[in-house]
Every structure is written in structure tokens, then in C-alpha cells.
Amino acid sequence: MDPNFLQTPITYLKGVGPNRAETLEGELGIRTYQDLLNLFPNRYLDKTQYYKVSQLQRSSADVQVVGKVINIKTIEQKKGKRLVATFVDDTGKMELVWFRGQKWIRENLKLNIPYVIFGKCNWYNGVFSMPHPEMELLADHQKGLKIAMQPIYPSTEKLSAKGITNRAISKMMQQLFLDTKGNFSETLTEAILQDLKLLPKSESLLNIHFPKSQELLAKAQFRLKFEELFYIQLQLITKKIIRKQKIKGFPFDQVGERFNEFYEEHLPFELTGAQKRVIKEIRHDLGSNAQMNRLLQGDVGSGKTIVAVMCMLLAIDNGYQACLMAPTEILANQHYAGIKALLDKIGISCAILTGSVKKSARKIIHEQLETGELHILIGTHALLEDKVQYKNLGLAIIDEQHRFGVAQRSKLWHKNEYPPHILVMTATPIPRTLAMSLYGDLDISIIDELPPGRKPIKTVHRFDANRLKVFRFIRDEINKGRQVYIVYPLIQESEALDYKDLMDGFESIARDFPLPDYQISIVHGKMKPADKDYEMERFVKGETQIMVATTVIEVGVNVPNASVMIIESAERFGLSQLHQLRGRVGRGADQSFCILMTGHKLSAEAKTRLETMVSSNDGFEIAEVDLRLRGPGDIMGTQQSGVLNLKIADIIKDNDILKSARYYALQLLKSDPTLEKPDNSVVRFTYAQLAKYRNIWNYIS
Ligand code: ADP
Ligand code: MG
Q1: pTM score > 0.70 for this model?
Q2: Residue 429 CB less than 6 A away from ligand 1
Q3: Across residues 534-551, what is the average pLDDT?
């Protein structure tokens, strides 16, 4: 079959026509024969079983029954008419009900002749009733082609309104198989097919649309999922190879004075093995001729900051500037304070740029950046303003990357004649599964080890009714010299309410922990940045024992003496947020605690989140649960959801297939980087077709 044939507009298919074609495109994005062929069923109905009326269950499964209609009548209701037929077999009777198309049914339904009916049964007023059953005369049913599994295609309201029912789509599919004789070009190499014992393409498509058995269906699904993931991985890996070959970066070939001096004399602690390994990986990238594009993942508190500092020193040793961008002002300030303290010792200049830096100070920063006097710039989004021009930016580090979109990342990139090396640090671990499919073209480093001496944080879930006990616990900890965070949710839609909750909470805490014995800081989104900083500062210095805050403190804040994190209305937080918040404690040598406060009313999902937090301290494990609960689109935001627009594979459930697809894609490109070998021509061809007809390559801009 000429593959171009499949590019024929769908309107040419018998039984489609311009009207249906328009609806198919609008609702399902189907423009060509190929698109229709790739419309895979969501599920299948098993029509191998026949039930007796007496066997019917009050379940939601579809059932198939053989029997006769013995009478039919119209029932008038306030809400409209319905048509009700009595259907019997030798074990009992049930009702069939129609709300629409009653005239047609009345005229065509035959009484006292055996039918096979199929549909969902409801238990209604003491009888089973099946609304809008599929019906076929038993005689026809016995003659007809037996499709054991009936495919159910995706549908929308508009499709059904326009008469494009599941049956209509099945008909189109049949037509397509007739026109093509079910003969489709193979899209995987012989070697892969044999190695994995995959079904050939034609047989897979046949069985996905007209399964002959459960077993063949499963094989067809496996093969098509593999193929889908294989081509995505092939693309991501190719992109990475091209980037490494084509996009030149500044080679940082010197490990110079600054780096060594700092490493030998000013490191505040011994690096963990994981930190050393990651620095080595980054150094290797920076030393090559290619631009680095690396994702650094590490759980909260794993010590990413010091890695960032060492990398910035590498840039400076090679005569370049570096910048570090953080998502919030508090975090930028904290980075600045910490990093400046370290770098002053070796005479490296460092400045901070955020929204609240005054115009006059800004001007100086802009000038010093352009002359190269300033080595390191730390800040927020303000770093992306057009006025910020570097003499020679060699390395850009982005902290907590999930808050920055792709567009912002590339904006940083375009600040320069040559792209700087990019290091993206995430504290919310991206599940490995997702990282592999989303960032398959980035290099990934993982810090999988916490600095020594950390005790795992003890996490408990407490109901609001036990607040007094919790307060007693807080008092004990404060008496031991510890500090406490109490965090309230702040979600935009209910900002006013949340603000009230926070203030009520603050007052009640202030009553229980009165001055002058107790000092309380408060930080929330409505405060001026300067006031926030002041309050934050008091807590950092240990002048206040309690920090009452909204989630502004979520990222990065580092107060090692704080040992208790209380999260109010914990059911309203997402898993990654809870884990982030918990990461604010457990940074010192003392045992730390996280207390999740909730009311008694909890959804099943909220319960799962709380249980996960109580049972695990591992960010990667938590991220996997989060992914399962929320789905990938939600986690990554709409911006990147294109990649998750998979036709048949499921990033979570088909993780094993994903790994295997990545492995085979890697092997193939290793042995034949340009896909020149005759055996691989099928892959080269398919890849080109995909790139030509489907814009699936724009996953990551
Ligand atoms: P994160 O990865 O969450 O950004 P930080 O870089 O803020 O973590 O580090 C958390 C805390 O651990 C800081 O107080 C930091 O000084 C400390 N730290 C980092 N690395 C080490 C280490 N190797 N040994 C001891 N403490 C460390
Ligand atoms: Mg950090």
C-alpha cells in the first residue's frame, strides 16, 4: 500500500462526505485516512458472553441478553414521553427504555421475535431496565461477522448529535480496511520486530480495530504503544545528539584558581558523594565544546546550592559571568545572602536584582554587568528584562525550574550572542518516567543522597480537634530552643477567605503563645516585600520562635534551627507542595517533625496524599504517587502537555514499554546515527513521514 494513500482527506472515504468530515476534524482532529486509522478505541466491550435475565447484576457493566419484546407502550411524564418495552427470556423479564427516536423504534421494532440486546442495565423501580439498547435480530446476529471484542471509540456530544455514533465510526473503519485491503506498510525494523516478537503493523491495526481475541488485542496494543513511544524517544535522542554537535557552547576548559581555592579552603562542609559526582558530570559538560543543557534533580535539602556555586566558579575561572534565577524574592534574597557570604572570601563580586531593587542601584548593576566588573548576578524574573545585558554570560542557573516556562528559559538564552550553558535545578523531583519522556533531550543529574547526620523527618496527621495537644507539643519544642513554622494555604480563588483563616489562626496562636515569652513572625502575600524580608529576617536570626505564613515560604527558605512544620488545612495542598513545605525542616541535626492538620471530612484522594506523606520522605516516591493521582498534564502544566498527547500509550501505565522503547531507540542511533543502513530505511522513512505530516516534534520548543 502506497503510504501516501493514507494522506487522502477523510472526505473521500465512502460514507463520510464534507459535513461529516468537518465534524470529524473539529471534534477528533481527523483530517486524513491516516488520522482515522490512528483513532484507537478507548475500550472494548466483550460480546462473547450471553446473560439470562435472572443473572443480571446491579453492576455498571454492559451485558448481552437474548429474548423477545412482548409489548411496547408510551408513558407520559412531566418531563416528556418515554417508550417502554417489556423484554423477556425463559428466566424473567426486564424493560427496554427510549427517550429519543421513539417513532422509529415503534415503527421498526418487531414483537415476539428473538433479539440480541446489548447495553447497560439499571435497577429501577424494582426491575432491570436498559436504556437505548443496541438491538439485533438473533437471526442476523448468528449470520453476522463475529467480533468478540467490540471497540468503543472516543466520542463527544457533538459527534453523537451529528449521527457519528460508535457504530458509524466502526463502519468507516471497515470501509478503510476494505479500501486498503488491510495492508499497511511496516514501520519498525525486522530486527526489532523479531527481538520483541511484535505483531506486524497490518496485523496490529487490524486487531486494534477488529480484535479477533483478547490475546491478539493485547499484542496489538503492545506493539502500537511501543511504536508510539519509540518514535518519540528517537526524536528526543536525535535532538540531543544534534544539540551536542551543532550548538556550540563556551568551553570551560580551566579548572582554575577560584574553584580550587574555594574547594580547598572555604567549603563549609565535606561534599556528599552525590554532590561530587554531579559536579563532575557538570564539569565534563562544561569542558566540552557543546552547550550544556542539564537538569539537576535533588530532593529538598540535598544541597543543590553549593553545586550551583561551584559551577559558577568554573564559569568565572574561564573568564565568564554567571547568573542564578530564583522564582521568589525571598528565595533570591536568601541565595544572595548565602552565596555572597561564601564568595566574599575569595573576592568575587556578586549582586542581587529583584523587582524591589531601586532604580539607582539597578543602573549600577546594569553598568557593572556590561563592563564585566560584576561576576555573578542573582535574582528573580527581573533578570529577564531587556535592560539586563551581560558582557559575557557563560552560565545561567535556574532554581526550582517547575515555575519557569520554556519561553522564559529561552529568553535567558537569547540574551547572548552564544547560548550560555544552562543548569536547571528542581526541588520537586520530576518522576523518572516523566523526566524521560519530557526531558529525554536534556541531560539529567541526580543528587540522591542527603548530607550526613540528617534524621528523617517524622510526619503525622492530626485532626483539628487535637489542636491543644499540638500546641503543647509546639511549646515543648520551643522550650528546647527550636523554632516552628505554621503554614496556611493560599489559593487564589479564595484569597479573601484564606487571608481571614490566616489572620484568625495568627490571633489564636498569639493568644496561646503570648508576648513577651514568645515572639511570632508573620509573612503573607499581601505584605510589602520589605516587610516580608524584615519578618523573615527576624525568624532566620532566631529572634522569633514561630513563623506563621502562607505558602510564600514554600521554596528554598533555610533555617536549620526550625524543627517543626505545621501545615494547616493540609488536605488543600498538593503532594509536591506538602513535600516542599516539609523540606523547610529537618535541615539541622535535631529530630524534626511535620504535622499535617485537617478536619474530619476528607476526600479519598486527600487521604491518599496524607498517607503518602506520613509513610514516605522520598521525593521521588512522592512524585510518582502525585503523577498517578493528578496525571501528567496537570503536573507539567499545559505548556508541556503536548508531549503527553499520546494516542495509545500511557506514560504512567506503560512505563516498562517506555524504557524498552528508549533502549531500542538508543541502540539504533548508536549503531546507525544517520539511519543509513538499508535495514533501517523503514525507520528513516517513518520518521520523515511523521515529521512531515504531524507536528509531533514540537514537544519542547
Ligand atoms: P536544596 O537542595 O534544597 O537547595 P540546600 O542547598 O539549600 O538544599 O542545602 C540544604 C542545607 O544543607 C543547607 O543548610 C546547606 O548548607 C547544607 N548542606 C549542603 N550540602 C551539605 C553537605 N555536603 N554537608 C553538610 N551540609 C550540607
Ligand atoms: Mg534550594
Answers
A1: no
A2: no
A3: 90
